[in-house]
Amino acid sequence: MTAYDEGTVARAGHRTAHVQRATKESSVDLFLDLDGTGEAQVSTGVRFYDHMLESFAKHSLIDLTVAATGDIDVDAHHTVEDTAIVLGDALREALGDKSGISRFGDAMVPLDEALAQAVVDVAGRPYVVHEGEPEGQVYAIIGRTYTGALTRHVLESFAFHAGIALHVRVLSGRDPHHIVEAQFKAVARALRAAVARDPRVVGIPSAKGAL
Questions:
Q1: pTM over 0.85
Q2: In the chain, at which end, N or C, are there fewer CB atoms within 10 A of the end residue's CB?
């Protein structure tokens, strides 16, 4: 699978980006459409991470295609991190000058016993606050190759490359899978609101005139 067919013509008016990144540790080819319907085709070699990115696409309504390979025989870290970097780069590119968007978004999402809150400001100033994961979550092994410690790293890599302020708080949770998935879904829903076009917003949603 490739992330982008060069023969595919983006729909008129859609905000899209196609970003590639290759290192000695991984290769990532990613295409996104901010004005999609949440369709996803994701292959990173880390199946649980695929599941999280598919869920992210579904709940953000961002169409996402990812083809990534890496040295997962060593550790999933490199592939997971580099995919998050490329996703952030693509979001920043697709947003352009951010004219007409809502800019802010927030969401609180439950998954059974887990509850996560995400708040985002698409401001161009990267910042991350990540709190509330239960003790021991960082050591959890989910799906054989994804460790709980990767979640914060994904959020940080994504936010810093996207240029967004991102606050994520885990309010409750016991199952490691649910704790991670609630966070991905909350971030997706918050971004869905933040990047949405608002017909009442004229120009850049900032008193400074730039984001």
A1: yes
A2: N
